[in-house]
Design goal:
With 286 residues, the protein is an alpha/beta fold. It has two domains: 43 residues, no CATH class; 228 residues, Vaccinia Virus protein VP39 (Rossmann fold), CATH 3.40.50. Helix content is 28%, strand content 22%. The protein is built from eleven helices and eleven strands. The strands form two sheets. The protein has an eight-stranded mixed β-sheet. The radius of gyration is 20 Å and the shape is globular. The N and C termini lie far apart (59 Å).
Length: 286
């Protein structure tokens, strides 16, 4: 019958074709109808086609086989998926309830997604989520850090529960990745006991444009615990003392994507903190 909307079929072609009636593009339709397939495609591009962070290649050297790994601020779970290839168990924390639900739906079987915002103390906090021009969430830039510039026309505000890492019963933890848009120092404060007793390697996103002075403060705080700070530049690990914010975090470069960034420039905001007793086993290159 003319004007009648066709029922959604079971094949990929039928589901993709349905996007024309629901005003979705192909990517949105694939994500909506076949989220596992969509995630696998995104992960492939992230890992192998230059869409993701180069530090992802280090994960195989940082996660001990048979151990527990933590992804704090997991978003949809790209790092958690890579960590799951090497750890016996991954616990991934995501503050945004909608994103946490999606991540749980596409995560590998050994990944547990916890909908909680990690911080220095249990309680409640405001999560600010920037929205794009179409009103969609830019979830990877959501932050609890009040001073973080969001550069968005509109912002969604969510009331979220906060917890400390030390409040969770976690054993045999070899690695923690932290990416929480300026709230990293609070997460560290809430993980004091876990770090002291289990000595995991840390990978932490630290950005001077969001939280000035954070690299030096974070490195100094962990140095007293005999942790060595490093960062990856041009495929080689360098000591954190060689980091120069003006050169390695030029804010003017934020207008580029990783694929469009000029080849003679780099924007570095991931840092490794490795216990001295584990540093000898870490390769200088991924």
């Amino acid at each position: 019958m003319a004007g009648t909307r066709r029922p959604i079929g079971l094949t990929l072609e039928d589901r993709a074709r349905d996007c024309y009636w629901t005003r979705m593009n192909f990517d949105d339709a694939l994500k909506h109808h076949l989220p596992h397939l969509w995630f696998r495609f995104q992960f492939f591009k992230y890992k192998y086609r230059g869409r993701g962070e180069p530090e992802l290649a280090l994960i195989r050297h940082l996660v001990a086989s048979g151990s527990t790994a933590l992804d704090v601020g997991c978003s949809i779970g790209m790092y958690a998926a890579e960590m799951a290839r090497h750890a016996a168990k991954v616990i991934a924390f995501e503050a945004n309830p909608r994103i946490a639900a999606f991540a749980a739906g596409v995560a590998p079987g050994n990944v547990e997604v916890v909908n909680a915002a990690l911080s220095s103390a249990p309680g409640r906090a405001t999560l600010r989520v920037p929205l794009n021009a179409k009103g969609g969430e830019v979830s990877e830039l959501a932050t609890l850090h009040a001073g973080a510039p969001l550069h968005a026309d509109s912002i969604q505000v969510l009331d979220v529960e906060t917890k400390r890492l030390d409040d969770f019963a976690i054993d045999n933890c070899s690695f923690i990745k932290i990416d929480v848009e300026g709230h990293e120092e609070a997460v560290l404060e809430g993980a004091t006991r876990l770090i002291a007793t289990q000595r995991p390697i840390l990978m932490v996103e630290l950005d001077e444009g969001i939280n000035p002075g954070t690299v030096q403060r974070f490195a100094a705080r962990l140095a007293v615990r005999n942790y060595r700070g490093l960062f990856l530049s041009r495929g080689t690990l360098h000591p954190v003392a060689a980091f120069d914010a003006a050169r390695h975090q030029d804010q003017a470069l934020l207008r580029y994507t990783r694929k469009t960034l000029p080849t003679d420039r780099e924007y570095i905001n991931n840092f490794l903190f490795v216990p001295e007793e584990k540093s000898a086993a870490l390769p200088s290159r991924p």
